[in-house]
Amino acid sequence: MSKHAGEAVRVGILDNDACALEFITGLVQRHYARLSMQVTIRASMFPTEMLRACTYTESVPNVLLLDMSLNGVGGLDIAQQLRVRAPHMRIIGMTAYDVELYRRDPDSAVLDELLDKSTLRATLPALLPRIIPSISEDALTQTDCCAQTERERRFAALSHKELEVVMMSANRVGNRQIARRLGIEEATVFSYRRNIKRKLNCEDWYDVLDLYRS
């Protein structure tokens, strides 16, 4: 039996294509069934419905699978709003277009992962198990908000990739090497840093590193 058996995970799926929504929902259901793990899926074609679910309900998804093109609404715009409303939620972007176009966008740092829709059948089941441990940790954090420090609350607003930039920089990894490890342009690292400073309300990058090490 899977070591995750008996645990419950909440998955949100936002895609304006009804066929894609049905396919991804089935993919997620089969994946967690194989893990003998309980799963609650909230699937929607409407961004406003998902935004409400992440704001006004107690069952905010642990993971959101987000289509990057939603009838004129940008997936990155939705992801940024959701990151503020549900900072512990993992956001996985999905696109039927060129993945690299999104990865080169500095705002893509708001996503924890970005997947090509054409390969979801293989990549999504491989990705989801890596997220399960962090979900368990976040669930504990969310049930004990009073015990959170101000530092933890501030860093919770960062995406996984943004946090990686901070951690590598704090370990004296240079920007060129950070870019190589993340598969992005070096100029994009500086864009990430600007986003991180804004989210943490820090004027200088060294203030970010001091806060991280504190």
From TrEMBL:
Keywords: DNA-binding, Phosphoprotein. The keyword DNA-binding applies. InterPro entries: CheY-like_superfamily (IPR011006), Sig_transdc_resp-reg_C-effctor (IPR016032), Sig_transdc_resp-reg_receiver (IPR001789), Tscrpt_reg_LuxR_C (IPR000792), WalR-like (IPR039420), WH-like_DNA-bd_sf (IPR036388). It holds the Pfam family Response_reg. Residues 151-214 form the HTH luxR-type domain. The modification 4-aspartylphosphate is found at residue 67. This is Sigma-70, region 4. GO terms for molecular function: DNA binding. One of its GO terms (biological process) is phosphorelay signal transduction system. It comes from the Bacteria. Residues 10-132 form the Response regulatory domain. It comes from Bifidobacterium pseudolongum subsp. globosum. Coiled coil: none annotated.
